[in-house]
Design goal:
Number of helices: 3
Number of domains: 2
Order of helices and strands: HEEEEHHE
Shape: globular
Largest sheet: 3 strands, antiparallel
Structural class: alpha+beta
Number of strands: 5
Strand order of the largest sheet: 1-2-3
Radius of gyration: 15 Å
Strand content: 15-25%
Distance between the termini: 38 Å
Length: 107
């Protein structure tokens, strides 16, 4: 088993966020999601934030802890094998996933 040689935020999260920014992406922190809006094919169309703002992107990455993620999952995803496994997790940890979407060009 390997261990980070420093705090996870500094050794893992910051390098990932920096990579995303250096490649033209945007990293949103402390922006609670109200719901995930899907396209007809089940891909993410947008995220509706708690304050009503809509976020559109070509790809989404989440590190939301499992328990809140289970509550946030769209009904259409709960039958997918990957998310069924997520729903079976009963210990507190974070699951990262990324999904592409059909963006309207907004970021």
């Amino acid at each position: 088993m390997a261990f980070l040689d420093g705090p996870p935020t500094i050794r893992m999260c910051e390098p990932i966020a920096n990579y995303i920014r250096q490649n033209g992406g945007t990293v949103l922190l402390n922006k609670p999601i109200r719901r995930i809006i899907l396209n007809n094919d089940g891909s993410v169309s947008a995220l509706e934030m708690q304050l009503g703002e809509m976020v559109y992107a070509d790809a989404y990455i989440s590190t939301m802890p499992v328990d809140p993620l289970k509550l946030m999952l769209p009904q259409e995803w709960k039958s997918m094998p990957y998310f069924q496994k997520v729903c079976d997790i009963s210990i507190p940890l974070c699951v990262g996933y990324t999904t592409g979407s059909k963006s309207d060009g907004s970021t």
